[in-house]
TrEMBL record:
PANTHER family: OXYGEN-INSENSITIVE NADPH NITROREDUCTASE. The keyword NADP applies. Belongs to the flavin oxidoreductase frp family. It comes from Vibrio caribbeanicus ATCC BAA-2122. This is Nitroreductase A. NCBIfam families: PRK10765.1 (NF008033). One of its GO terms (molecular function) is oxidoreductase activity.
Length: 240
């Protein structure tokens, strides 16, 4: 097993950080790793906003659902899909196709994961902050995003001040299909539910009695940020 694979397999979300800053050279390496990520048709439709202003950090922590580590992490990066630079180059660009919005979301995810893996390889830790989308318009205005760009998520980075357990994932036999989509074997899910219940019971904090199936059902059975479509449309995205 290579050190790269070991880094990937040892991933865990870090939400508690020391006061130590990230070295400038390390941050540059993290950003360069992100810039090296794959890009659909080499469109390069991602912008990263590094938020260093303390007041803005506090405001973003609140807008993200009162997540204090947004303010306390050494670095906070906000990943945005960005077609404004392309529109500026030539106004004939049509950023309003839904396919382009999907490309922007995919490219942001790929770039951010490169950044996080690079950080973890340097002994740092981090956690993604999708909660920014709960107040997407307010975050957008705080960061002064132009038309044809939209906030997607944030990434906290810093020196870990905790060592949480690895969270079990669904087994490969549930995720990986061969040649065609295979029907779900609920026995596999039942076994995974037992694994997750044991994991939750072993945690010293935030213990849960529910299973993974119950957790995701609760998440997916109700509304999920219904304002997002209007937000994207208002930025000239995903209109057709």
């Amino acid at each position: 097993m290579t050190s790269t694979i070991e880094t990937i397999l040892s991933h865990r979300s870090i939400r508690k950080f020391t006061d130590q800053a990230i070295d400038a050279a390390q941050l540059e390496s993290i950003v360069q790793a992100g810039l090296a990520a794959s890009s659909s048709s080499m469109l390069q439709v991602v912008s990263i906003i590094r938020v260093t202003d303390k007041e803005k950090r506090q405001r973003l922590a609140h807008l993200a659902g009162d997540q204090p580590y947004v303010a306390s992490a050494a670095e906070f990066l906000v990943f945005c899909m960005d077609y404004q630079r392309h529109f500026t180059i030539n106004p004939q660009v049509n950023p309003d196709f839904t396919e382009l919005t999907l490309i922007g979301a995919v490219d942001c995810g790929i770039m951010a994961q490169n950044c996080l893996l690079a950080a973890e390889s340097l002994g740092l830790g981090g956690v993604y902050i999708g909660g920014l989308r709960s107040s997407a318009q307010e975050v957008d205005e705080l960061l002064n995003l132009p038309q044809h760009s939209a906030v997607l998520f944030g990434l906290c980075l810093g020196h870990p001040d905790q060592a949480p357990q690895l969270k079990p994932r669904l087994p490969a036999k549930v995720i990986v299909h061969e040649n065609q989509y295979q029907p779900l074997n609920l026995d596999d899910i039942n076994e995974y539910d037992k694994t997750m219940q044991a994991y939750y019971a072993s945690r010293s904090s935030n213990q849960k009695q529910s299973s993974w199936s119950q957790e995701v059902t609760s998440k997916l059975a109700g509304e999920c940020r219904p304002h997002i479509k209007g937000y994207l449309n208002g930025k000239g995205l995903a209109k057709r």
